[in-house]
Amino acid sequence: MDEPIVGYDGNLSNRSTFAGVKRGSIGDLEKVDVAIVGAPFDWGTTFRPGARFGPGAIRGADYLGPDGERPHLPTGIDPFRVLETVDLGDFHLVPGYIEESISNIRRGIQMIAEQDTVPIVLGGDHTITFPNAGGIADVYGHGEVALVHFDAHADTGETHFGQLVGHGTPMRRLIESGAVPGHRFVQIGLRGYWPPPTVVEWMREHGMRSYLMTDIVERGLVPVVDEALHHVLDGASKVFISVDIDVVDPGMAPGTGTPEPGGLTSRELLDTIRRLSRELNVVGADVVEVSPPYDGPGQVTAFLANRVVLEVLNGMAERRSRRLS
Ligand code: MN
Ligand code: MN
């Protein structure tokens, strides 16, 4: 390929790396455990745009120096001492052109996973989970990877303004393409007024396991996550975690395109993400729908998204440390 897939010369992100980790190259990920990569993409949104500025804001929501240690207070583990982590910069995308952009993302994700490296993608609107989880499934086998999806919305729309690809349809496309079958899905945090009953019926027919906020309120988050873990571990040895930041209540995460009141707290999301990343074999993850132009004072949503990524890394590092000890 003549055009590079990814790099630091995009103009939508700042050029610093996530948590000050080393810059990496997509062609050379030998001995690299985790590759952070930005996807400054928001031309699949249906309402408020701005998620193209997510990767830069998420990287920038950090007040520790680039060279310092950052041991996690509850565990004492510094994930960057356990996991060799690099930042690849941002995917090279074609603003306004969905197909060209997602095919570049999918190829990039395949290249990362083929080198046994775990990609963690900073979005970007939720359209990108189609190529993110799809690229992972291309490498590890269609049907072999489970997907844990945090979101206010099911993202299983049949079409998006008559088109197949957009931020309301990625989970439908993953299921219909066979990359991630419905029975391998666990969704957490759904609420509000979408999708319509016909789509909910389709989800049920395809074996999707969807936990609404009302389930979480009635049964408690921990029992729901216990059950979700049990379901995910049923036959799938590899997991992709997709976090739409709008799963958190807009009071704590206002910087997003399609806010839906009544969500999880930041604390609940962070604890759940670390638990899943510790107990499951995470082979890929993304954090999406952070729209900095709508963020609150103090970039509260960007800070939350940054810490979601850190909790994924902390959980993975705990898992690795436990295996080594
Ligand atoms: Mn979503
Ligand atoms: Mn959503």
CATH architecture: 3-Layer(aba) Sandwich
Helix content: 25-40%
The set of bound ligands, ions and cofactors reads: manganese (II) ion
Averaged pLDDT, please?
94
Principal-axis shape: globular
CATH C-level class: Alpha Beta
Largest sheet: 10 strands, mixed
Question: Can you walk me through this structure?
Answer:
By secondary structure, this protein is of the alpha/beta class. Helix content is 35%, strand content 16%. The chain has one domain: 3-Layer(aba) Sandwich (Arginase, Chain A), CATH 3.40.800.10. It has ten helices and ten strands. The radius of gyration is 18 Å and the shape is globular. The mean pLDDT is 94. Bound molecules: manganese (II) ion (MN) (2 copies). One manganese (II) ion binds at residues 126, 151, 153, 155, 244, 289. The site of one manganese (II) ion has 6 residues, from loops.
Q: What's the gist of this structure?
A:
The chain is an alpha/beta fold and about 325 residues long.
Draw up the topology in text.
Blueprint: E1 6-7, E2 22-23, E3 34-39, H1 54-60, H2 79-82, E4 85-91, H3 98-114, E5 118-123, H4 129-140, E6 145-150, H5 170-176, E7 185-190, H6 197-205, E8 209-212, H7 213-219, H8 221-232, E9 238-244, H9 266-279, E10 282-288, H10 300-324
Parallel strand pairs: 2-4, 3-4, 3-5, 5-10, 6-7, 6-9, 7-8, 9-10
Antiparallel strand pairs: 1-4
The protein binds manganese (II) ion (2 copies).
